[in-house]
Design brief:
With 244 residues, the chain is α/β, with parallel strands linked by helices. Helix content is 47%, strand content 16%. The chain has one domain: Rossmann fold. Helix 1 crosses helix 3 (48-61), helix 2 packs antiparallel against helix 3 (48-61) and helix 4 runs parallel beside helix 6 (105-116). The protein is globular and about 55 Å long. Keywords: Hydrolase.
Length: 244
């Protein structure tokens, strides 16, 4: 039986540290303030669109050009130890890989090319926001969905697959507040468990009763996805593993 699947990721989920968090923590307003803004988003007090814009504006206010940010990310962002093997498996199984990100396409493309090589990076579709660079060198994010409180409503990248006559199984991998809009629309939701304790998406899913599978790196996720593809696990059984 042929099985059609899609894998979608947040860009920070495939790395050991999220690029947006790195910029905010190291080049902008700092981790403590970023966490305050994350908590406000989780509590529904502020939108992710507005808090994320504030984070990026703090980077610009400190005089960091877009090019400088790109080079800093290329130097400091590392790939999840199990992702390359997982990506090779997806290629061999003809599983499309799509990055759905709250970040900006040029930064994601640059970091991804640096981590897995330009040839492989160019094969991966990126659905994210863009950037506007002004004549004076200052820059700002250009949201994909500016009227949405998410800035980029990731559910809009998933729902078209849901409407197909023969919809694929959708695996979604996420880790943060920007993934809340997409969480309930995946067939199998993987939530990355961070070593620093910033498990915002997990907390959101627990509160909302959204079944999900916690994973620390892609090695575990690889095993579960493979079993679903091979028919050894159903979607329901896979999610049951995550709730055990």
């Amino acid at each position: 039986m042929a099985l059609s699947l899609n894998d979608v990721y947040r860009d920070g989920t495939i790395t050991t540290r999220d690029s947006n968090d790195y910029m905010t923590d190291e080049l902008g307003l700092g981790r403590e303030k970023r966490r305050e803004l994350n908590f406000a988003t989780l509590a529904g007090e502020r939108t992710f669109r507005d808090t994320f814009r504030e984070m990026l504006e703090s980077v610009v206010a400190k005089g960091h050009s877009f090019g400088y940010c790109e080079e800093e990310l290329k130097k400091n962002i590392k790939l999840d130890s199990g992702f390359k093997e997982f990506y090779r498996y997806c290629e061999s199984a003809d599983i499309p890989v799509v990055i759905i990100s709250s970040g900006m396409t040029p930064l994601i493309r640059a970091v991804l090319s640096n981590l897995i090589g330009e040839e492989d990076a160019n094969k991966i579709e990126i659905v994210s926001n863009e950037v506007i660079i002004h004549p004076d060198g200052k820059w700002e994010i250009q949201y994909r969905h500016p009227s949405s409180g998410y800035g980029h409503d990731k559910s809009q990248a998933i729902l078209p697959y849901r409407r197909l006559p023969d919809p694929p199984i959708i695996f979604f991998f996420g880790d943060g507040v920007s993934d809340m809009s997409a969480a309930k629309h995946a067939d199998v939701l993987f939530v990355k468990q961070k070593e620093d304790g910033e498990n915002d998406l997990h907390q959101y899913c627990v509160r909302q009763g959204i079944p999900h599978i916690l994973f620390s790196n892609f090695s575990r996720a690889h095993n579960i996805v493979r079993q679903v593809v091979e028919g050894k696990l159903s979607v329901k059984e896979a999610l049951a593993i995550g709730q055990a």
